[in-house]
Amino acid sequence: xxxxxxxxGLIQQSNTGDVEANKAKLAKxxxxxxxxxxxxxxxxxxxxSLYFCQxxxxxxxxxxxxxxxxxTDFYSEIASKHGIVLVxxxxxxxxxxxxxxxxxxxxxxxxxxxxxxxxxxxxxxxFYEKFYFTPGDLxxxxxxxxxxxxxxxxxxxxxxxxxxxxMAMAGAEMLIYPTAIGWDPRDTDDEKSRQQNAWITIQRSxxxxxxxxxxxxxxxxxxxxxxxxxxxxxxxxxxxxxxPQGEIIANTSSSEEENILVQADLARSEDVRRIWPFLRxxxxxxYGEITKRFLND
Length: 297
Prior knowledge:
Largest sheet: 6 strands, mixed
CATH class: Alpha Beta
CATH architecture: 4-Layer Sandwich
Helix content: 10-25%
Strand order of the largest sheet: 5-4-3-2-1-17
Number of domains: 1
């Protein structure tokens, strides 16, 4: 099969409370990736601001914007200027009292190719997202772009094989996860290692099970807890690209801001699926109970 290679840029960035400064730094990093030949650039989750979900604060709803709105105008212009497909992650104000964690994808001419609203919403210490976000209602539908059919999901979605499978079944040529995940600084080194390894392993497993590449872009750096009830979050970076057999093609460090460029061969998925025909051998007639909350004895 003929190769279908694209050059992907991943931007791993630390943020401050200055939204405009964060956006300006992103614009510079996107330009850097584009100048190095990126056709597709992926940003981390909620990249305009600090990760505000460490606390429940009604004033932080002021960070949300409509789509389309000021941020979509900003990133649309950048995508058009550099001729790239751009995957962004925004705090969407859909209607009064209705907010989503939404990934927005821009085509090379700056038009909005599509969006995905985060489906799985966590509510853990330091990650109080249920306070801010209504679960998505757009389903698991890939976004068609000039570089391929993108299965865009967001952070907590990455732990769910069902989401990855449904995207793949709908024709996604790759899975993309803008992410904001990190350690509690008080955790032991062993616990930190277990958490990060589990995060990498589950996403590599989605690549293997579905025979498609996975792109995961995380933020990096320490962000303090505004309530001072904890020591904040140390985002662990380690953004990576895995191939369709789960192999790590490239990854970043756990502590530094980095832009990396990766060559992805989308056509290789067909070769892998021919030798590992997992999709062929699914026993769909026996999976009905997967939609239940639990199973009785």
